[in-house]
Design brief:
Layout lengths: L11 H17 L16 H11 L12 H10 L12 H5 L1 H9 L13
Helix pairs in contact: 1-2
C-alpha cells in the first residue's frame, strides 16, 4: 500500500480525486458536456464514478468494450447523450499492434466525443 502523507488534503492524488468528483457532479448536472478521468489502476476512479452516479440516482455500469469496434459501437449508442463510463481501456492504447490494425482497417471519419468517465 502506498504511503499517504499527512494531512491527506496535501496529497496530490487526493486533490486530483476531489477535483474529479466535482467535475463528475457537474457532468451529471449537465453543466459540462464531457469528461475523461484517467490514471493508474487502483486510484479510485471507478469507485468515484459509482459514488457520484448513486448521488444522482443513476446506476453505475461501466462499459468494457473488447475492441476498437466495440468502443465505436458504444460511442454510437451514447451519441444522443447520457453519461458513458468506460473502464479498463488502457489495453486499447498500450497494444501498438492492435492500434495499428484498427487505424488501417477504418476509414477516416470525424469523431464526436460523448460524455465519458
Amino acid at each position: 500500500m502506498a504511503h499517504i502523507p499527512n494531512p491527506i488534503q496535501k496529497n496530490p492524488v487526493w486533490l486530483d480525486l476531489q477535483c474529479a468528483e466535482q467535475l463528475l457532479r457537474q457532468l451529471y448536472a449537465g453543466k459540462i458536456q464531457a469528461l475523461i478521468i484517467s490514471g493508474p489502476p487502483g486510484m479510485g476512479k471507478t469507485h468515484l464514478g459509482e459514488k457520484v452516479a448513486r448521488e444522482f440516482g443513476q446506476e453505475w455500469n461501466p462499459e468494457r468494450p473488447g475492441s476498437f469496434i466495440g468502443l465505436m459501437r458504444i460511442f454510437k449508442q451514447y451519441a444522443r447523450g447520457g453519461v458513458l463510463g468506460c473502464d479498463d481501456l488502457d489495453w486499447l492504447w498500450s497494444n501498438s499492434k492492435r492500434w495499428k490494425s484498427s487505424r488501417s482497417s477504418s476509414t477516416p471519419r470525424s469523431v464526436v466525443s460523448s460524455p465519458t468517465v
